[in-house]
Amino acid sequence: NRRAFFKKSIDIGSVALASTVSVKATYNAKDIELKEVNVKIKNLTQTYTIVQLSDVHIGGLIQQEFIKNIVNRINILKPDLVVITGDLIDTDIDNVKAAVDELKNLESKYGTYFIVGKHEYFHNIQKIMDYLNHINIKVLENENIYIGEKNRGFNLAGVYDVFGYRYEDFKPDINKALIGTSGSPTVLLAHQPKFIKEVVNVDLMLSGHTHGGQIFPFNYLVNLAQPYIKGLHQHNQKTQIYVNKGTGFWGPPMRLGASAEITH
Fold first, then answer.
1. What DSSP line would sit under the chain, residue for residue?
2. The pTM is what?
3. C-alpha pair distances (Å), 64 with each of 95, 99, 249
4. Which of 4, 90, 99, 190 has the maximal Cβ count within 10 Å?
5. Sheet holding 81-85, edge to edge
6. For residue 199, which of 155, 139, 241 has the smallest C-alpha distance?
7. DSSP string, 102-164
8. In whole angstroms, what is the distance from residue 116 CA to residue 190 CA?
9. Taking residues 5-12, what's their average pLDDT?
10. Residue 225, pLDDT score
């Protein structure tokens, strides 16, 4: 009887603990943190504010109201520009146009810029890029654009995702992306942190993809494939990298040990 009592107590305790953790993880997936980060870049003489979104995964459980709330939060910040570092859309674009169209309401001085992530390759990547360009979200396709006042601004460059190597199309090309960028600081958008192995002459790289591990302890598994999981890092003497933990979620609507974030 004593053994049965202890076994039943352990069973009940285990179920209670699992339920508590699940509820907390589900809450974390909806509670998006505003992450404030200060980055110093050599030879950048003027301050600029960037808002970064990543890995929103529109489709499934993430729909119009979720995006509308994100847009409202960003507009309060009055950023100079908004960047979206891949895995924005996780279904056929025709299924989620109402949600995607909410992004047209983003307000910033220099506009909104996007690079593809891995998941865009699964859902007609060209169609997605065409639609985003159509609603004035500039897709950076191995190219760059100058942001800010002449001689006081920076280059914003963007590349396709490394998944393009396996897809055998839409492959990242860092050399093409950086044409004409010498003489000014450069910020690079690249979805996966491991692309930093191919990067030279870039001051700051903004990435996503990892979800910060999303659910502990998967962060340890992610770290086997990616050199950085989250946050700001000094990669070498010249280049820094910031990895956004993801604004949405993929798979189960849960996060544990890795909050969703909007990076400012």
1. -HHHHHHHHHHHHHHHHHHHHHHHHHHHHH--EEE------TT--S---EEEE----BBTTB-HHHHHHHHHHHHHH--SEEEEES--B-S-GGGSHHHHHGGGG---SS-EEEE--TGGGGG-HHHHHHHHHHTTEEE-SSEEEEESSTTTSEEEEE---THHHHHTSS---HHHHTTT-TTS-EEEE-SSGGGGGG--S-SEEEE-SSGGGSBTTHHHHHHHH-S--SEEEE-SSS-EEEE---SS-SSSS--BSS--EEE-
2. 0.86
3. 11, 4, 15
4. 190
5. 33-35, 261-263, 50-53, 81-85, 112-115, 137-139
6. 241
7. GGGG---SS-EEEE--TGGGGG-HHHHHHHHHHTTEEE-SSEEEEESSTTTSEEEEE---THH
8. 8
9. 53
10. 84
Q: What pLDDT, in 10s, does the model give residues 14-69?
A: 443 333 333 334 434 458 999 999 999 999 999 999 999 999 999 988 999 999 99
CA-based nearest residue to 232, from 222, 244, 224, 220: 244
Give the pair of three-digit tokens for residue 199: 């990067």
